[in-house]
What we know:
Number of strands of chain A: 14
Oligomer: homodimer
Strand content of chain A: 15-25%
CATH topology of the domain at 3-27 and 267-353 in chain A: Aspartate Aminotransferase, domain 1
Structural class of chain A: alpha/beta
CATH architecture of the domain at 3-27 and 267-353 in chain A: Alpha-Beta Complex
Largest sheet of chain A: 7 strands, mixed
Number of helices of chain A: 12
Helix content of chain A: 25-40%
CATH class of the domain at 3-27 and 267-353 in chain A: Alpha Beta
Shape of chain A: globular
Amino acid sequence: MTVExxxxxxxxxxxxxxxxxxxxxxxxxPVVEAMRAAEELCLLEGRGSMxxxxxxxxxxxxxxxxxxxxxxxxxxxxxxxxxTTDGCxxxxxxxxxGPEDEVVTTDSEHFGLLGPLHASGARVVVAAPDAEAIxxxxxxxxxxxxxxxxxxxxxxxLPIAELRSRSGVPVLVxxxxxxxxxxxSVRGVEFYTVSAQKWLCGxxxxxxxxxxxxxxxxxxxxxxxxxxxxxxxxxxVPRPGAARFDPNWLALPLLxxxxxxxxxxPEWAYQRAAELSALFxxxxxxxxxxxxxxxxxxxxxxxxxxxxxxxVRRLAEEGVIIRELPGRNLLRASVGWWTNxxxxxxxxxxxxxx
Amino acid sequence: MTVExxxxxxxxxxxxxxxxxxxxxxxxxPVVEAMRAAEELCLLEGRGSMxxxxxxxxxxxxxxxxxxxxxxxxxxxxxxxxxTTDGCxxxxxxxxxGPEDEVVTTDSEHFGLLGPLHASGARVVVAAPDAEAIxxxxxxxxxxxxxxxxxxxxxxxLPIAELRSRSGVPVLVxxxxxxxxxxxSVRGVEFYTVSAQKWLCGxxxxxxxxxxxxxxxxxxxxxxxxxxxxxxxxxxVPRPGAARFDPNWLALPLLxxxxxxxxxxPEWAYQRAAELSALFxxxxxxxxxxxxxxxxxxxxxxxxxxxxxxxVRRLAEEGVIIRELPGRNLLRASVGWWTNxxxxxxxxxxxxxx
Lengths: 354, 354
């Protein structure tokens, strides 16, 4: 697949310089077609027919295996969730932390991680987003280090396996801006979340949680899918592996769409996204203040004191889709394997037009 | 809308006697069309564009209001979830129960309620599914009564408001088999779950939780949608009302589909479903042992010692879709406002054919 063939998969790219996969990725037509074919089956065969049910279970297994293969772990370590938020809540609820416990995070995390950390009841210790500061914040009371692999603000990459090995403390990684964006391993940590609707271009409401040792995390928010068998009082034998953490049923169209999204992804995706991201940083640097970063998120300040929200709206009118980082007066462009130099030039021209 | 017009909305009814809304409801073509129109917008405008984002938020507000109006409460008391399981987990996590606490439930609950009850850490006391037995199980340690409004096994209706007023104990109601199925109020209890993909014929992955006093339940599994503002350590000011409990973003197609499903529902839905359910019970009684019940679920034993799972498969081959109640060797037919006498006769004929 050439870059041009790849771009042709995404109708949104025909008209817009769509640079916001960090919020939600572009949708490919084959993904929507796979979803529609599955919807058609549900419409005609019945969503609650045995045949649909069995096919959905099979597709669920295939999806789990495909996500696992993509991130390079065994399917037994993958739970299928709706979001990174789901993953964080599953882990924090299962760890049973209390006010005597500490968790270490950074000052650049998304609320999808911060909210569950706070709700856990543990004391949340906030460090600067670099390895030394994070490690310096670890005390004998630290039960968890919980950080992003790639910061949603600047695209900076944190050395998660190093944090784990040097601290000796379990690590939960918010992988929302890393999986599918940068070639970086999910291994070497206890818990790793996946947002499939962003850089994997999967359907909304799809994601995953990788759990290195499923037996050691309590199933704190069970769904019907959690149990192999259960007693009248709700006590249950968990299903083998991380499937026990699956929080909800996923309908056939979601599974079919995610499978298709993983399948159509070109082999050169990571390399191209990295090259384009570097090109974006280089090209934007003379024009705006670009924040240091190494992922596929390029953060920069608005020019001449313009308000970030106003810039987002102005650019949208010109067909350039970026986002604002609220409370920081920063702008963020997301660069994917589907992005090209034209998108970059449209962004530059729109920023200069002011 | 006549019954024939109503039936024509559902393609699955053209070929099948689809009698399994208790698992998942039939999908109406206008619902799928509404979802497809929304998908088209996401495909062309970009899922992460400001315009799509703002439209999704508006549709989210409309959906919350529509669900609230349907169950007869204020929108401020409604959280939009993916399932009844979500609702049960949100409530149980937020109540912060421990081993000193007791919760009372019945021996006829779904794991979607039982699992969260067990995971709460409280002692789960199991009573027979009738009001006197449930009330007799209440002790000074009882912190919650958690029961279905309509039992998923037999369709029997429990007097939830009476359980609340006579016990003085907070009540969580599993509304999976009641909302949209029978005309019964969600009022008079603290927590009430809604499964929108069953009797409301909404998209998969839609549901709600009604919380009578949102301020009094802790937000134990926050999503980004939970907060009006937050601090670097994740502490946050919750959004007003039950919206603080919303566990996940719902994409535009899901919201559009649910709105359409609520809109196309005829006024005579409850009355017709009740009449047809009574007719099913009456017509089946000479043929099979029908369990007592008053909802739209009709449970009965297989004939002549036949295995329930085998009956489900045999009937599916004849185009009659019912389900088995695992571990009980029971069969269950779900009767909706879209069901007709032909469906009943097909079921009877298929049962007799053996």
